[in-house]
Amino acid sequence: MIHDEDFDARAADAALTASRALMGVVARSVAGVLEIVTLPQFRVLVLLDTSGPLRMGVLGEAIGVLPSTLSRAIDRIVEAGWVRRTTRPASRREVLIELTPAGQNLVTHALEQRRDNIAKILSALSLDQKSAIVSAFELFARAAGETSSEELLILGI
Amino acid sequence: MIHDEDFDARAADAALTASRALMGVVARSVAGVLEIVTLPQFRVLVLLDTSGPLRMGVLGEAIGVLPSTLSRAIDRIVEAGWVRRTTRPASRREVLIELTPAGQNLVTHALEQRRDNIAKILSALSLDQKSAIVSAFELFARAAGETSSEELLILGI
DNA sequence: CACAACAATTGCAAGTATACATTTATGGCG
DNA sequence: CGCCATAAATGTATACTTGCAATTGTTGTG
After folding, report:
1. How many angstroms separate the CA of residue B81 from the nearest CA in chain A?
2. What nucleotides of chain D have any atom within 7 angstroms of a protein Cβ?
3. For residue A45, what are the contacts with CB-CB under 8 A and spacing of at least 6?
4. What pLDDT, on the 0 to 100 scale, is given for residue A41?
5. pLDDT in tens, A94-141
6. Distance between CA atoms of A155 and B42, rounded to whole angstroms?
7. Domain that includes residue A84, residue range
8. Do A139 and B29 form a contact (C-beta atoms < 8 A)?
9. Where does residue B145 rank: exposed (0-12), middle (13-18), buried (19+ CB within 10 A)?
């Protein structure tokens, strides 16, 4: 039916427009951080924030870089003070990477800023409107299914 | 009131979750492209797609890089065949950059894929649900206001 | 016309990411 | 214990981005 297709097209367009708005929020929260660390470096920090300390191998696997690449990337963010290398007592050939307090702050701050930005946008709306948005967003997120963290890492989220 | 704050928090959380879902869609559409061009290069292509041919100076200003950086970046994507250099007839010291058909395809394809992904997610929903999502997304996008393209460029959108 | 202003490019240099091959240190197992 | 597998780091090389300074070509103006 023509009408259904029209409606579907409008729905996708609305979602695209909303996605632009949401991405603007994300971009704002990332922009500041990217003046401090590079995107690949931020990916590492975000991953450590959500997963806790990780082995070099696991970390490299997760963000999709070779061990040699990761090793030198870690060199740099250790030097900058965002993470710490720890040899695991149980197996001394394994190296654990963990966020320093400074690294933790960096990630937390970016995420908080994002949340605040969204809250500020919503604050202009009535309770009914907020309620409608909550339901719709929850519905969409469910329909989209689990978003794999690997995908999100591409954009450093 | 406590209840309002609780509700506001839930609203922001729902928006954050939805943003993660939408960002996943974006990330998928960008991931493929990033195996072909770098993020800064893709930023140039997206900007040319939305603004049409641009002078070197304007282009560099828009994406926030020095002229020397841009000049060499353009060298590479000219070499790769995504854009073309044109000297403007009116003022022969100005150089216009424009997408080649190949470059146009690259950007268009990424955007279409993003739209298709969203459409596919929505296709699982009932008409009522879609309708609710459309209204809510449109509402949110309006509340968020215009998202400047400079911000979006950060993420390569 | 000569000279200043402008647009873009080029010279030079450093930082980062990435890849492939090799090396060092450690753990597991016959 | 000796050997092989594993984990990480290093050696070496290339490509991209970025920055500052200097240069080339063009436009506009006194």
Report:
1. 25
2. 6-12, 16-22, 25-28
3. A37, A77, A82, A83, A99, A103, A106, A107
4. 93
5. 999 999 999 999 999 988 888 888 888 888 889 899 888 888 888 888
6. 14
7. 2-154
8. no
9. exposed
Q: The domain that contains A144 carries what CATH number? A: 1.10.10.10
In whole angstroms, what is the distance from residue B126 CA to residue B131 CA?
A: 8
A74 strand D contact, CB < 7 Å = yes
Lowest mean pLDDT among A29-43, A47-61, B94-108: A29-43
Greatest mean pLDDT among A26-30, A65-69, B8-12, B39-43 lies in A65-69
Determine the distance between B60 (CA) and C2 (C1') in angstroms: 32
Global confidence as pTM = 0.83
Mutate which: B5, B63, B121, B148, vs A, most A CBs within 10 A:
B121
Distance B72 CA to C11 C1' (A): 13
Measure, in angstroms, how far nucleotide C8 C1' is from residue B94 CA.
7
Number of domains in chain B: 1
Of B122, B129, B151, the CB nearest to A8: B122
Q: What are the mean pLDDT values of chain B's consecutive 10-residue runs (157 residues total)?
A: 68 77 77 87 92 95 92 97 94 96 94 85 87 86 74 62
What is the DSSP code string of A81-134? TSEEEEE-SS-TT-EEEEE-HHHHHHHHHHHHHHHHHHHHHHTTS-HHHHHHHH
Question: What is the model's pLDDT at position B27?
Answer: 76
Q: Do B12 and A122 touch (CB under 8 A)?
A: yes
Q: Which residue in chain A has the smallest CA separation from B121?
A: A144
In this complex, the residue with its CA at the shortest distance from the C1' of nucleotide D9 is A71
In the prediction, which pLDDT does A57 show?
A: 95
